[in-house]
């Protein structure tokens, strides 16, 4: 379908408002999905990093406690 002018293209035979509104809503939803996914991914990575640090601290504390028990027994 060819249009006589750019304004005729934007008008789309009287349906331009609905066509461009649907494009706008679709684009907004896709951007929201992309941003939400990036935020969720970042939060998940931060949680994993915190969990790893927590586990390392627990292992270190257990190791130190075991060493302390060995020195107390001697």
Note down, in words, how this protein is organized.
This protein has helices at residues 6-11, 16-73. The model has no long low-confidence stretch (mean pLDDT 94). The protein has 2 helices and no strands. It has one domain. It has 74 residues and is mostly helical. Required for the export of heme to the periplasm for the biogenesis of c-type cytochromes. The chain crosses the membrane at residues 15-35. Its main location: membrane.
- Share of β-strand residues: under 5%
Q: Biggest β-sheet: count, sense, barrel?
A: none
Give the helix level as a range of percent.
Answer: over 70%
Radius of gyration (CA) equals 30 Å
Subcellular location: Cell inner membrane
Transmembrane segments: 15-35
Function: Required for the export of heme to the periplasm for the biogenesis of c-type cytochromes.
GO cellular component, one term: plasma membrane
Features:
mainly alpha, transmembrane, cytochrome c-type biogenesis, transmembrane helix, transport, 2 helices, Heme exporter protein D, 74 residues
Brief rundown of the structure:
By secondary structure, this protein is an all-alpha fold. It is 86% helix and 0% strand. The protein has helices at 6-11, 16-73.
Topology, element by element:
Elements: H1 6-11, H2 16-73
């Amino acid at each position: 379908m060819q249009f006589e002018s750019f304004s005729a293209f934007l008008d789309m035979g009287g349906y331009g408002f609905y066509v461009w509104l649907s494009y706008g809503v679709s684009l907004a939803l896709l951007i929201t999905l992309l941003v939400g996914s990036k935020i969720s991914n970042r939060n998940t990575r931060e949680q994993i990093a915190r969990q790893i640090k927590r586990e390392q601290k627990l292992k270190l504390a257990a190791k130190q406690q075991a060493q302390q028990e060995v020195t107390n027994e001697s």
